[in-house]
Amino acid sequence: MRFLLILSSIVFLISIIVVLVHGDRLLLGDPIKLDNDDVKYIHSARVLLNEGTLVYNSGNDPSAFIMPGLTIILSGFMAIFGEQHGGVTAFRIFQAFLQAICIFPVYYIAKYTFNHRVAIITSLLVAVYLPDYFTSGSILTESIFRFIVLVLLCVMITALHTKKTSWYIGVGLLTASAAYFKPQASLFPGIMLFLWLCYHYSFKEIVRFTLTIIAAYIVLLIPWWIRNYITFGHFILFTNSAGSPFLLGTQIRYELPPDGFFAAYPQYDPSTIFTGADQVAVAKGLDVLKYGLIHEPLKYIHHYTIGRLRALYLVPFYLHDIFSIKKNIVGNIQTIIVWGGLIGMFWACVRKTGKSLLPILLTLFYFTAIQIPFVAMSRYGYPVMTFFILFMSYMIYQVILIFTKEFTAKNNHGLPPHPRHESGV
After folding, report:
1. What are 94-141's pLDDT values in tens digits?
2. Which of 47, 259, 273, 349 suits 38 as a labelling partner, its CA being 20 to 30 A distant?
3. Which residues, 6+ apart, have CB-to-CB distance to 396 below 8 Å?
C-alpha cells in the first residue's frame, strides 16, 4: 500500500506539472470556431451553467447529441472556479487526480489476474504511459471513462466472489455512470453471464443479480430519459447521434465509396454521403457497407478486422507532445506495448490455468467488439490499453523468471551438495 501511495503521488505531481506547463495548448480545437470536441464541451458547460440548457452542435438550443456526464462535471468546476481558465484548470487537476488513483484498481486487477510481482510491474508501466498524461490534461471523456471502467471491473470481480446484492447494485450504478460518458459501456455487465456460468451460479442467482444490475442502471439513467422526453417530446435512450459513428465507420482512408456506388444509389450525393445522424446516417451506412461487401469484399473485411484493430490500438492517443517527446517515439512504444501484450496474452492462456484470466480477456473482447461497427480511432481504444500493459507485464515477469532460473542454475552447476546433519538438529 505504501508503494502504491508513493507511486500515485508521483503520477499526480507529474500530471499537475503537465497541466500547468501545457495548459490550453492541449486543446485540439479553436475556442472561437468550436471545431473539435474539447472546445465544444467547454462551450456546452458554459451554456449549461448560465442558461441551464445542455447544448452541443446546436448553438444555444437543447441537444441530445452527446451524453451529459462530462458537461455536468465541467460546469460544476466552472461554477466554483470560474468559467474561464480557473474552471477548466481545476477540471484538469481533477482528471490528474483520477489518473493517479487509477494505480490502485490497476494493481488490484493485475494481482487478481496474476500475482503481486506482475501487479507491481503493471503499476510502474502504467505510471509512465505518456498518453495518460495527455488524456488527463485534455477536455474529453476518456480519462473519467477509463477510471470508471477500471473501478467497475474491480466491483464486478468482487461481486462475482462475494455474491452480495450490494456489490451488484454497485455494478449497475457504475455501468450507468459510465454510460453518462460513453453509452457503449451499457452492455459491459453482459460479460457477467459467462463468469456466472464458469463459477456455477444457479439459475435463480443469475436472474436475481441480472435484475439487480438492470434496476440500479435504470434508476441512475431515469433523469436523462425524463429530460429528453420533456425537451424533445419523445423517448431517447442515449443520444440521437448514434448513426453518425456507424456511417463514418464505413469510410476507408477518408475515401468515397467504391466506383459504381452512386450509380447504384442515385439518391446519394458524393459531397454529403458521409454527413448526417440518426436513422438517415444508419441507412446510408448500411447501403455503403452492403455495396462494399459485394463489390470489394476483401477490402471491407480487412477494414472491419485488421484495420479496426490497428486504428484502435496501434496508434497512441497522444495528440500533443508532452515535454517535447515526439509522437513517433510514443508510437513506437505503443507498438511494443500492443505486441508485447499480445505475446503475454498468448503466453498466459497457454501457461496459466484457472478462471482469473476471464475478466480482463472478456473486457478486452467486449470493448473491441462493441467498437467494430463504428468509426475506430485511438481515442476509443485508449481506455483498455491498460490491459495490454498488464499482459506485457506478465510477459516481462516470465522473461525475468527464465533468466533468473538460468542464472541460478549456472551458478549452482558443479557446486558440492550441502552437507546433511544426521543429528536432526
Report:
1. 999 999 999 999 999 999 999 999 999 999 999 999 999 999 999 999
2. 273
3. 121, 340, 344
Q: Measure the CA–CA gap between 174 and 153, rounded to whole angstroms.
A: 10
Percent helix, strand, coil in the chain, to 5, is: 70, 0, 30
d(CA 111, CA 152): 16
Would the pTM count as exceeding 0.70? yes
Answer yes or no: are the C-beta atoms of 45 and 78 closer than 8 Å.
Answer: yes
DSSP secondary structure of 20-83: HHHGGGG-SS-TTTT-SHHHHHHHHHHHHHHHS---SSSTTS---SS-SHHHHHHHHHHHHH-T
**Helix, strand, or coil here: 318?**
coil
Output the CA angle 329-333-338, nearest 5 degrees: 145
Residue 405 CB neighbours (<10 A): 10
Report the greatest alpha carbon distance in the chain. Answer: 97
**331-358: b (≥16 Cβ within 10 Å) or e:** eebbeebbebbebbbebbeeeeeeebbb
Residue 312 CA to residue 319 CA, distance in Å, equals 14
CA distance 162 to 192: 14
* CA dist list (Å): 346 to 13, 309, 354, 395: 36, 17, 15, 9
Cell of 336: 511494443
